[in-house]
Amino acid sequence: MLAVFARRCNPLSLPKAGYQVGLTALLLFAGAGSVHDATALNQTRTLSFHHTHSGEDLTVTFKREGRYDEGALKQLNHFLRDWRSQDETVMDRHLFDILWDVYNDVGGKQPIQIISAYRAPATNAMLRRRSSGVARHSQHMLGHAMDFFIPGVPLEQIRYAGLRLQRGGVGFYPTSGSPFVHLDTGSIRHW
User: Fold this and answer.
1) Per-residue pLDDT tens for 20-50?
2) Alpha-helical runs (H) found in the chain
3) Domain range 45-190, its CATH number among 3.20.20.60, 3.30.1380.10, 3.40.50.620, 1.20.1050.40
4) Model pTM?
5) Reduced to 3 states, what is the DSSP secondary structure of residue 120?
6) What are the residue ranges spanned by the domains of the chain?
7) Is 3 exposed, middle or buried (0-12, 13-18, 19+ CB in 10 A)?
8) Cα dist. 39→42, 67, 107, 175 in Å?
9) What is the DSSP string of 41-76?
């Protein structure tokens, strides 16, 4: 397909340097997705966590050879439960891919420190009464969000890694009682 485009493009209508730059950019743009897709197809992905409220630790391989491990996802659903009410939900599996990409982008070495993941509606309502920073229709209530930090990695680096991905919401809370970054699988936005 790219060869057909290159043949149809009249090199005489563009200055030689412009033609070469344009064709190079087109080839890089077209090839970038396929290289990423090819490398991601058969990946095995493991993450380590520490939950700051429950004190629990978990290391789990959630993807094996490019396929989600359903047993591992169930472990994650339990681990990321609402620590106040003990209610569980089915967490969005794509959140773990985003987290894995961010963790690798920033060169994380220590377990991810979980501040908050799933929140039951009653918990979310209670938190809204205490703080204006809690959304009425929070992605946390859908199992689509996580608040966390990575020891040894500046919060700004985590935030920028999430923003570069352009795969969901990125919140930045550097002055919170326990500073954290929020990632979710909702619409692309940041605050």
Assistant:
1) 544 444 433 444 443 344 345 689 999 999 9
2) 2-8, 16-41, 70-79, 93-105, 121-130, 155-165
3) 3.30.1380.10
4) 0.77
5) coil
6) 2-41, 45-190
7) exposed
8) 7, 13, 18, 37
9) HT--EEEEEEETTT--EEEEEEEETTEE-HHHHHHH
Radius of gyration (Cα) for the chain, nearest Å?
Answer: 21
Residues 73 and 53: beta-carbon distance below 8 Å = no
pLDDT in tens, 51-64: 999 999 999 999 99
Give the residue carrying structure tokens 């990695």: 153
List the strands of the sheet with 45-51, edge to edge: 67-68, 57-64, 45-51, 112-116, 145-149, 180-184, 169-173, 189-190
Q: Please report the pLDDT score of residue 106 as a whole number.
A: 98
SS3 category, 140 = helix
